[in-house]
């Protein structure tokens, strides 16, 4: 047996959906050992009562949810913060610099204080290395990092699709149009009437349209970095009748002379050696179902000559590659482990 | 009791989804009496075997599916053609000019033979009055008409949302971007592996992206008429895990100075007196569930100042306002009946 | 035009699911006019904000939710109570005897105070005529009634399937086994984590198994009346991933010599002249989808010779024939209107 | 690194649902290497075209579907047969005795030729060791076996729930009543109208009721072995609107004096040391969602004193513990590998 690193892990927000997915992945991770789980409202109850899908895990079955106490989190080598935005900064401030902290919330994603102020409000906590290893040059920034801001689910799907086309100069950076449909788990586990099964089953609905969604500046930040110039986009999110998955459709005006072959080549170059991002064969379009429960993103592209736009579609699991899986992928990089440790690239389908 | 017109009706394609919805609506229509139903593959079998939701209708329960014989269809005052495209023209040619014929297929929707040739191929059958009464000036063209081309489901959702904004000169006619999610019934009832419940449940997927979907020229035709100039658009359809419903997101660049209030006013002016198209209150976004089984379309609009685009979202039931309900609405106009006869504006929700 | 009775109606619990379905049906009812809607938590807000599927109804769009004030309810000719159990009795006590009151809650369904005490607890409010017209002799009890207890959704599905077999002496009254799957709307609209779309989509789960569900004594009461002897049953409810619908499977031991033909004949005799309950053709099995949004129940039966049990399956829409539709059907009887007024027997399918 | 056995594997029926799940599991199995995949109708096409969820697997991406040729299958150390019933026997006959063959079909499950004849018809192929290791004494029969008949999905769920209660003499062996709801993948991938997403979404329906379902004798065989006497049961299957999962409700009459505590103790004794079968804590009921994509079964039991019946509910994933996962578990036993190799006990939820 290989010598395994016994890395102790703490997970906050363990009673939520991202927390539940993190714990599912960590239960199968050979090097990370979950020692502590916290969940404000459920403190004192067995973890499996909140997360019955973990009942088959001897480790998870032995855990009890605690209140979130930074002093006790500090005992861990690795801390995942899966909390509503605005709660991570105070906790992170009390953790040793040597602790690896991966924040699944928004607090440390944006470098621009003005963007934070206008979309989230309140004080800007600062920014950490952005945990999307497949972006140009980003992997190096994550290897050995002690603080990592895991990306949002929508921004991951949009950045993976469009960044290579912008970096290759094949599409215009302004007037990008994004419409992305998400499963309901992206809206969290707090009970709300509009998220009841009775309301969402059989329904596709729009929300936060008109450029007000908080993921907009995060998308623009990633894409601007890839383009080397300011990218602006309009984003319309949709709620779809499924628990998991995002299907993002991103269109951008083609640069003069850009061809479908060039679009395809740019994505192939970016992803052919990536373990988790896959450009689909021509004629095959992404479906969220093919990525369910996996850390994969499926990408396809077309050139709409009729209106002169590139159309990129990306499917991924919002809780896995869009949240928990990506966080584990980043933690692997932080500890120098093989990037795919404990993660699957295969969807549970049908 | 008012004197009722005993209008005899024949429905072709009665074993399909649009046919089944037509028969559900017609069973509750006080003036239309279905005398004949045809369905190629199921000829000779009881209608309710193919359409068990009609078992509670004495009339429908007494009907047997027949082969499609124009000579027998000619006995009806009103014929609905719910057939795959390419099959309507030959049948229509054998029906008397005095028969009211409403075609739910694509054959007679496009005025431009070149558009037909490039998107459908084969011979162009010609064009009939376009059955979308809520379009500017269109209602008059349908009153008393003997031949009507009922619109496609996607084009209905896009035209209802954008036409008033184009007519009011508030948005640019070029570079319109449409992403619309449809329920699976829009793909028809012929068994295909990619439409199996196991494949579509829990899945949102893209298809026919890149400007190749056949509804593209139909959308452009309606919108160009409303704009008074050539409109071009890029259309990406999505398949969503629900049986019915379309949620269309259409964005167009704002004309200089156009405001959110102007966008809203243009839609309010267009629809405040319409029985089936409803501009939602501010802050409320359309959901397909609220229109299920109804002939309604729900509309909402926003101005995305950040990128200078109008964002219109429209929800409707693809089988009702997007197909069978619209066809009945048009038939009511053709016979001079109240336009809402036999139709409901209220969705079955939750 | 026929002379219509202008019957004024008040609906309590109008912001819930049963209330929303009641208002959808009442908007299309030619004799009932909704003048007042109440909803505790949403008092003061427009009805359509809670029930967006009603936005197409001029009448419903003009209504504002009020607090529930018996004095104001008393102004109505007809009052529907769609409240959690335990709340109806106090309100009903303040309404004039001349007012027709239909309670969709459980308060007045059980005749046996002990059954009430053991399953619901607290004081027994008494019992009203049971609003299931298709039960033997029950229709007469509802014609002209001023107080009606509308049945529960599960009990409706079980009684319609088994009562005729018990009345005909074809099955044994003891050891009846019921397993019924319900859509999530049966659990109400109050936000709960276990009812979130993310939890219920893709999931069938059991709950309240082991004979503890409150609908058990109500089922036994109806079936005992039909059998003329004490009927006991074991009931296991399931939650299914759909908003609406109940599929009930009820099995009972066959009396010696009872045949499949006799089972079928008993159901045919009971329902062949009923407008809303339909025995399906042999070889066809009930599906909840075929009854969606309708007041119908679809019934099928088989004799399992292998174990000597009758197997009856019944599909209906828990919010319509299982709640609001049944309530309107009963109100029609109370006012001497045609029983089917304002109701459809056809499901919205697919 | 541990020394790994390089066991070569062939999978027939690789283009179906069970085949796709097998390949997902095998891609993550450290000792089994898939060298050959066959699929009659898709022979010559890339595997990932039929199974897009495998696109992230370098191994699976390199495979092409072949026609099923026993001579080439014989090159493998391990052959999984995932074929419609009736096709396995002829192929198995041509494979060396030394090859480990796991049949996911029904051909070799039944020991009684009469049961085969009456439920399947045609010649009885014989019987192989039954691949449900958690049944009393069954594990030993599978260790080192060269031929294994993997159980059906429904029989697995029923046997796991009731066998321990029968073995402990707590319930009567006659008049067992089973109602089980399955996701649509259990009906296979061949396109059929009644399995279209449009037909199954929003619908629970019954089928094959009245004791005619082919899994009935298989259930009785397992349960009779556990009871040590003849067990008879009535089985009603339901189709539920989800791709995967079975929720089985099994009730049996309690033996005099049998208590809820005894029922619970019998299941705890049977499963406390099992890696894949889990008795849930009291008050928690099984949900198929908690087992999605895992090889787990979740079990709960109650004593319905009211009618004197035990009620056992079991949730599992019909494609994993109900088919492919169980097959891999059995193959691990055949090769003397740790039984859990390559399998997860944790569901993908929500």
UniProtKB/TrEMBL annotation, chains A, B, C, D:
GO MF term set: N-acetyl-gamma-glutamyl-phosphate reductase activity; NAD binding; NADP+ binding
Entry annotated with the keyword Cytoplasm: yes
Keyword Disulfide bond included in the entry's annotation: no
Primary enzyme class: oxidoreductase
Coiled coil: none
Locations listed in the record: Cytoplasm
Catalytic activity: N-acetyl-L-glutamate 5-semialdehyde + phosphate + NADP(+) = N-acetyl-L-glutamyl 5-phosphate + NADPH + H(+)
Main location class: cytoplasm
Active site positions, chain numbering: 153
Keywords per UniProt: Amino-acid biosynthesis, Arginine biosynthesis, Cytoplasm, NADP, Oxidoreductase
Domain Semialdehyde dehydrogenase NAD-binding: 8-143
Pfam families linked: Semialdhyde_dh, Semialdhyde_dhC_1
Protein name: N-acetyl-gamma-glutamyl-phosphate reductase
Organism name: Motilibacter peucedani
């Amino acid at each position: 047996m290989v010598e395994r690193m016994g890395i102790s892990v703490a997970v906050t927000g363990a009673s939520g959906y991202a927390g539940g997915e993190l714990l599912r992945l960590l239960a199968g991770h050979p090097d990370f050992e979950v020692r502590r789980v916290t969940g404000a409202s459920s403190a004192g109850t067995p973890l499996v009562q909140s997360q019955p899908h973990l009942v088959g895990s001897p480790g998870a079955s032995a855990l009890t949810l605690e209140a979130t106490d930074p002093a006790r989190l500090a005992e861990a080598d690795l801390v995942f913060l899966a909390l509503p935005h605005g709660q991570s900064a105070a906790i992170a401030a009390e953790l040793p610099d040597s602790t690896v902290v991966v924040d699944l919330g928004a607090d440390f994603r944006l470098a621009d204080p003005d963007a934070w102020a206008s979309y989230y409000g309140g004080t800007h906590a600062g920014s950490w290395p952005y945990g999307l290893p497949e972006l140009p040059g980003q992997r190096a920034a994550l290897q050995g990092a002690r603080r990592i801001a895991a990306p949002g689910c929508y921004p991951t799907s949009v950045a993976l699709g469009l960044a290579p086309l912008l970096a290759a100069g094949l599409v215009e950076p302004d007037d990008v149009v994004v419409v992305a449909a998400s499963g309901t788990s992206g809206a969290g586990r707090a009970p709300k009437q509009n998220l009841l099964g009775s309301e969402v089953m059989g329904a596709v609905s729009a929300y936060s349209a008109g450029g007000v969604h908080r993921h907009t500046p995060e998308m623009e930040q990633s894409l601007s970095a890839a383009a080397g110039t300011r990218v602006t986009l309009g984003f319309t999110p949709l709620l779809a009748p499924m628990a998991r998955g995002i299907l993002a459709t991103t269109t951008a005006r083609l640069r003069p002379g850009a061809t479908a072959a060039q679009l395809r080549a740019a994505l192939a170059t970016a992803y052919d050696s990536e373990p988790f991002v896959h450009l689909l064969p021509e004629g095959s379009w992404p479906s969220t179902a093919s990525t369910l429960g996996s850390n994969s993103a499926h990408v396809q592209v077309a050139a709409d000559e009729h209106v002169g736009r590139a159309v990129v579609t990306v499917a991924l699991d919002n809780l896995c590659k869009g949240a928990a899986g990506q966080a584990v992928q980043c933690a692997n990089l932080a500890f120098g482990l093989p990037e795919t440790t404990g993660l699957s690239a295969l969807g549970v389908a049908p």
